[in-house]
Fold this sequence. Notes:
Two copies of one chain form a homodimer. The first copy, chain A, is an alpha+beta fold.
Amino acid sequence: xxxxxxxxxxxxxxxxxxxxxxxxxxxxxxxxxxxxxxxxxxxxxxxxxxxxxxxxxxxxxxxxxxxxxxxxxxxxxxxxxxxxxxxxxxxxxxxxxxxxxxxxxxxxxxxxxxxxxxxxxxxxxxxxxxxxxxxxxxxxxxxxxxxxxxxxxxxxxxxxxxxxxxxxxxxxxxxxxxxxxxxxxxxxxxxxxxxxxxxxxxxxxxxxxxxxxxxxxxxxxxxxxxxxxxxxxxxxxxxxxxxxxx
Amino acid sequence: xxxxxxxxxxxxxxxxxxxxxxxxxxxxxxxxxxxxxxxxxxxxxxxxxxxxxxxxxxxxxxxxxxxxxxxxxxxxxxxxxxxxxxxxxxxxxxxxxxxxxxxxxxxxxxxxxxxxxxxxxxxxxxxxxxxxxxxxxxxxxxxxxxxxxxxxxxxxxxxxxxxxxxxxxxxxxxxxxxxxxxxxxxxxxxxxxxxxxxxxxxxxxxxxxxxxxxxxxxxxxxxxxxxxxxxxxxxxxxxxxxxxxx
DNA sequence: CGCAGTTTTGATGGACCTCAAAGACCGTGG
DNA sequence: CCACGGTCTTTGAGGTCCATCAAAACTGCG
Lengths: 246, 246
């Protein structure tokens, strides 16, 4: 299902070992975590958790992407987070997920049984400290996204999303963000719309617009080429230099 | 400036002692905090911090309300948080504020010198643990707001904001949210617009609409009466029962 | 009273949503 | 190999909600 292999018996081979919630742990702590952890995999599109579900675990995303969504009764939904490798799922001290969690791509997560994890948190400040760091980063991302949702035009929203996805993809493969970047969209038009607070038709139209303007090239539905990243970034409405957390 | 008085020499008289970042601290820890803290006050409208400013402190809101805002170069701004008494300003390990912080009402904050506060955090898990709790709560609030910004109509946005403000006000004065609630809007129409991702004209029109529909009554610009809170909540688009964090 | 800041109200246009249908892509099975 | 259906995407036409521009009304204050 997932391409990248790693030895689930050995955290030293784990691809997210340096950024996950366990990244500050010493080997004794890792050993304790090891005794309460297990892996789960999901195929693209599968649901990991429904809003209101009881959670018996918290988890780290190891491979793939998951989405966090909130819905209204009438069917409107808003994605409130994209969880990438090393991101954390769940909240210590809470039993039910307030959000729907869905595997956007094929997904592997590293689960920790909740009760013992919470007990460990009290004893090992390393975990709590790292979780605080990660939560503060997520809060910054959420606020960045509030600006996008509240004030950006559809055009700027699409450009912003593409910029983020392209940059992330480049980082993932340790490439320097260069001209002629190529990557595969992990999101359907509908998922993009849910994330951006738009309809899928508007997303499609804006994508076509960017294509016609020569700012992006599309190959099939998913493959995107960005001949000039600066040109795309100029469409985001953002300051050229600063910002762009996430 | 602020009505409620408390003895700044004695944390036992502090109105936010049970909810602030210091709420889990024992008396020895409070004493340490006491040695690195000082108070500041601002009048309504004054700026506390500009985005990019160097911060020599972190702080707790004691009295009044502050706003966190993000701006784009062309002048568009989006409020990304409303800080109420007990809420925390600043981030350990970061030197510059990424947001504008403005006193919405007259405001008093309890500042801790950043360097020693960060050192204390490493030693006293009580502080870090409470800050983690508070940050997770803020993250939930931010995500709730993302749903509002991305998917709610202007009408629903206004109803949601009024519901939240009314409920908070009732809590603050330990009243049970009842029919015939009366409170003063702490926000100008422009601030409401910035928070809701609307223009001030749209805010004004929607307020007039709710008034004409008899769902709210307005006295002067700021005083709001809500004869039937359930009727207002029915306009928010939310599930009647759950949700409504914050 | 007169002035500045805030709020309300009006008129207009445009960005985006809604409804609708056709087209592209992909796996399955004949 | 191609036909077929299902899913995802594109494109079109029309309508609506909200932003924009503009001006008047209200509030508080010297």
